[in-house]
Design brief:
Helix content: 25-40%
Shape: globular
Structural class: alpha+beta
Largest sheet: 6 strands, mixed
Distance between the termini: 22 Å
Radius of gyration: 16 Å
Strand order of the largest sheet: 4-5-2-3-9-8
Order of helices and strands: HEHEEEEHEEEE
Number of strands: 9
Strand content: 25-35%
């Protein structure tokens, strides 16, 4: 059995578990509102200068203060993949990380996969994209840095 077929067979299971955990955490958030981490916490996300610069450019183009949302999904060639999107909303279960006026939001479930990670913006010949350049929770991943395996 190849690893690709195993991953494709397990992806629906992981997706269902992530949705189930999300529902559980949403119901718990009514009881206890999650706190933002202190700036000195080792679990904080770190933003590179390139990431901050690109977000400021996007905010100027949009004419509003957009948030960079990082979430984790089952899939990709290594088991889990990073998903970046621009957002206007901070949800109850989000953790907010700010550097030089740029905010990155991560939902509580995804934060468990990216604690202490570094978010970068990379411009290459074939693409320009946000990516997680360092992730202490990952033991491996694909060469394009869009997916990873957990410890």
């Amino acid at each position: 059995m190849t690893s690709v077929s195993l991953i494709s067979r397990l992806s629906p299971y992981f997706s269902a578990r992530l949705r189930q955990n999300s529902r559980l955490l949403s119901s718990l958030s009514a009881l206890q509102k999650p706190r933002n981490l202190s700036p000195k916490s080792p679990d904080d996300l770190h933003l590179t200068d390139s990431c901050v610069r690109r977000m400021k450019e996007l905010q100027a183009d949009e004419g509003s203060e957009k948030l960079l949302r990082l979430s984790i999904e089952a899939g990709g060639c290594s088991g889990f993949q990073y998903k970046f999107s621009l957002d206007d909303t901070v949800n109850d279960d989000d953790r907010v990380f700010e550097q030089d006026g740029v905010k990155v939001v991560v939902d509580q479930i995804s934060h468990g996969f990216v604690k202490g990670a570094t978010v970068d913006f990379v411009e290459e010949l074939i693409r320009s994209a946000f990516q997680v350049s360092k992730n202490p929770s990952a033991v491996g991943g694909c060469s394009c840095k869009s997916s990873f395996m957990t410890k």
